[in-house]
Each structure stands twice: as C-alpha cells, then as structure tokens.
C-alpha cells in the first residue's frame, strides 16, 4: 500500500498512518494533536492556521513516508 498524503489528508488519518509524522506538526506549532478538533482538520487547514506552506509540508511528509 502506497503511503502518501495530500493537502486534503486529515490530521487524524495522517497520525494513524504514521505516528512519527507528529514531529512535523509539532515543529509548525500544532501542539494540540490529541484534541478531537485538530484531528478532523485537513493538513491544508492546519498549515493555513499556523502560517506554513501546505505544498511544502506535503512534500516534506511524503519524502519522510518514502524512507
């Protein structure tokens, strides 16, 4: 199964797929990963709230998932 994310990927789905990706979310200032509301947010929404380029974050996470 290919592990790949997009801007539409929900934070909760991302963390279930690969818990170690939490490091990228924490680095951008998303410290409420256990909050149900944050898990229902898309990666794009989270990036927008935290002032991070969503395309760059998707590329970074996908590169990590390919390792």
TrEMBL record:
Domain DUF1858: residue ranges: 6-57
One of the Pfam families matching this protein, by short name: DUF1858
InterPro entries (alphabetical): CHP03980_redox-disulphide, DUF1858, ScdA-like_N_sf
Listed PANTHER family: BSL7085 PROTEIN, DUF1858 DOMAIN-CONTAINING PROTEIN
Name assigned to this protein: DUF1858 domain-containing protein
